[in-house]
């Protein structure tokens, strides 16, 4: 890329990064989009991948394919690990642990958030979150394996533990996961087993609030509660999950009282989010204020105070209680692209104004919620509106048609065609790249360190 044109570096290929790069496609700037996954993930449908309704390819799209027609947009695979604001340079790590640098004139931080365990990171071993494709595949494996193991056990407490699923967090993701597992147990798997009755599977939903879906109005929250109750989801409100073990969870009531123990061999965590490590690093380097979750304080135009060339968008932008939803990221990406275009035209920037386009949550087939300003829709019509909205924002025409087709089949039949899962082979060391070294498998006894390098 030539040095005469403005260099825009976007970190993160989620909704914010995607929409920013799209709007700058064909503009007289050089855009580099750096992402640790090399693909755009449609996170709102991640739970449908985890529960076997949709495939990985239907909710993701390679960034290279997305920007193939935009010659001024370069996509790179890497994880940002360091920034030098004086030289305007970001250091990124390749999957093989080596590093490279990227120069920028404008830096857009759209790295998003990660699952938060509120300082109890050891929970992650037994309670996977729901943020990445790896998370979805991990959850799919655990959920369907639980039924398979239960099939081999005699009636009793051990089998009951495998047929109990605990979900921590009563927000949209937690509600959607809980509803899908119960629907799967009562429809998809109902007649596929001989020793167990999948319909007897328990799904426990724990949350510290008084009701599920606190971001929705009380009326829709109550309808969600009724729908979950009809499905058979057991709601436990006003409690905190204070321990997660291999075989269950410990629950502590907020109002006081003795702890409660629940035997559950599958625990899923959707209870909180926090800034990714690079976001905390860049805030420290720039001297920017952050909130408890690591969101970075930004100016009205979404830039960082004292660094007008650095923008923070999406979930990471800490200003005026901007919500951690896809619409905020999309609008933030479009806003930053507009700032760049206005600067090229010699015009001043405008402040960012978030427009609330509403919220939606899926519970089960024919049951969803939609809230757009004064408009509140639930049940079948909410489900239709939910479907149209999600299809509209899926990346790629092919993914949209494929997803619609899959949903139509799912409506007509109880089957979920994307529920295959694989179990790792203990005797075969995996040959894979990794972002970290702590989780790498130890080398075989007869192998040398040089031979095991990737």
From TrEMBL:
Gene3D superfamilies: 3.50.50.100. It catalyses: a quinone + NADH + H(+) = a quinol + NAD(+). The keyword Disulfide bond does not apply. It comes from the Bacteria. Its EC number is 1.6.5.9. Keywords: FAD, Flavoprotein, Membrane, NAD, Oxidoreductase, Transmembrane, Transmembrane helix. This is NADH:ubiquinone reductase (non-electrogenic).
């Amino acid at each position: 890329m030539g040095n005469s044109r403005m260099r825009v570096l976007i970190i993160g290929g989620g909704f914010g990064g995607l929409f920013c790069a799209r709007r700058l496609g064909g503009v007289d700037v050089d855009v580099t989009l750096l992402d640790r996954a090399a693909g755009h993930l449609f996170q709102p449908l991640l739970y449908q991948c985890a529960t076997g309704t949709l495939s990985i390819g239907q909710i993701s799209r390679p960034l290279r394919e997305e920007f193939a027609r935009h010659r001024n947009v370069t996509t790179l695979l890497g994880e940002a690990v360091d920034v030098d604001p004086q030289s305007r340079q970001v250091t990124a790590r390749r999957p093989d642990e080596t590093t490279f640098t990227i120069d920028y004139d404008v830096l857009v931080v759209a790295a998003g958030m990660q699952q938060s365990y509120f300082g109890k990171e050891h929970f992650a071993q037994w309670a996977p979150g729901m943020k990445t494709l790896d998370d979805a595949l991990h959850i799919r494996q655990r959920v369907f394996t639980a039924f398979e193991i239960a099939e081999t056990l005699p009636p009793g407490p051990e089998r009951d533990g495998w047929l109990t699923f605990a979900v921590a967090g009563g927000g949209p993701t937690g509600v959607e996961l809980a509803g899908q597992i119960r629907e799967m147990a009562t429809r998809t798997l109902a007649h596929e087993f001989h020793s167990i009755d999948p319909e007897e599977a328990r799904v426990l939903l724990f949350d510290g609030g008084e009701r599920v879906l606190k971001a929705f109005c009380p009326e829709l929250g109550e309808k969600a509660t009724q729908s979950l109750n009809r499905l058979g989801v057991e709601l436990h409100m006003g409690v905190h999950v204070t321990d997660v073990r291999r075989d269950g969870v410990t629950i502590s009531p907020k109002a006081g009282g003795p702890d409660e123990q629940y035997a559950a061999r599958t625990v899923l965590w959707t209870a909180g989010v926090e800034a990714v490590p690079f976001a905390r690093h860049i805030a420290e380097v720039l001297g920017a204020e952050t909130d408890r979750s690591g969101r970075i304080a930004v100016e009205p135009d979404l830039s960082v105070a004292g660094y007008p060339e650095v923008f923070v968008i999406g979930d990471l932008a800490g200003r005026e209680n901007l919500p951690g939803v896809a619409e905020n990221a999309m609008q933030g990406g479009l806003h930053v692209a507009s700032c760049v275009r206005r600067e090229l035209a010699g015009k001043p920037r405008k402040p960012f104004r978030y427009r609330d386009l509403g919220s939606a949550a899926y519970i089960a087939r024919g049951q969803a919620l939609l809230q757009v300003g004064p408009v509140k829709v639930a049940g079948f019509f909410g489900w239709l509106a939910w479907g149209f909205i999600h299809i509209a924002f899926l990346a790629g025409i092919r993914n949209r048609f494929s997803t619609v087709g899959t949903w139509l089949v799912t409506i007509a039949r109880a089957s979920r065609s994307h529920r295959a899962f694989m179990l790792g082979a203990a005797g075969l060391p995996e040959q894979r790249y990794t972002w970290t070294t702590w989780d790498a498998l130890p080398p075989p006894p007869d192998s040398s360190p040089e031979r095991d390098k990737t």
